[in-house]
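Example 284.
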Amino acid sequence: MTTMHAAHGPIGLFDSGIGGATVLAALHQQLPHADLVLLSDQARCPYGPRPAAELVRIALANTRWLLAQDARLIVVACNTASAAALDTLRSRFPDVPFVGMVPAVKPAVRASRRRAIGVLATPTTIAGALLRDVIAQWAGDAHVVAQACPGLVEQIEAGELDTPATITLLAQHLAPLRHAGVDTIVLGCTHYPFVAPAIAQLMGDGVTIIDAAPAVAQQVARIVASRGTAAVGRGSIRYITTSDQHRYQRLIERCGLPPGQVEHIAPLDIGAQPDATINAHRSE
Ligand code: DGL
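Predicted structure in complex with D-glutamic acid:
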């Protein structure tokens, strides 16, 4: 079945938390006219430890909510959810353009002079098939250190971007990258750009840090341009949380994000199992 969605509505994004805002900020810079709605599902943050089947149900619920806001395009602004659910989203909503996150191994290998790169991501992304495939496809003979960073999303969600606890945690996660002499680091989680300055300081000069958000924003810009809607909107931003609105507001300020309207919604119903929720939706 086809999905009716507005051609002139906002661009929707979702993530487990504030990480999606790194993509929102890049999009706002790339497409200043576009209206943007970010659903930060902080009630279920982190997504990392959740099984793939649950992530699919969460992603379906988030997508439906964004479509109910008239979203004309949806950015899965989370590496973990992209790896688990992007294929399902595209097949369930064939008329909706989706853009997802893929660890930026290809540009990192191109940028690396020593042909040694590091990938930082959530444990789920590090263990997943998507990263394995991307490395197999693009790394060639480059040495890749894939490092899971448990606890880092939680530190960032707490607004601890450069506290001693966060620096200690980062130093632990970065140690294998330093040992391997990497000169390029891929941020494989949309939360991590908020600690890029701390990573740069710990790794020292000569290390390039790659955030996929600007490339994703360019991809979105190409899609909206091809649909003739690049100039649509008033440049409004809505930040939606499924958890504490005041904490979210403080985090948005702490992270230096563009101003917008901050709202709270109740955690979305993701159903007991996929088919029960999918069949209930009008547009599938
Ligand atoms: N920003 C999400 C990502 O890119 C965080 C995942 C999580 O909530 O564990 O992977």
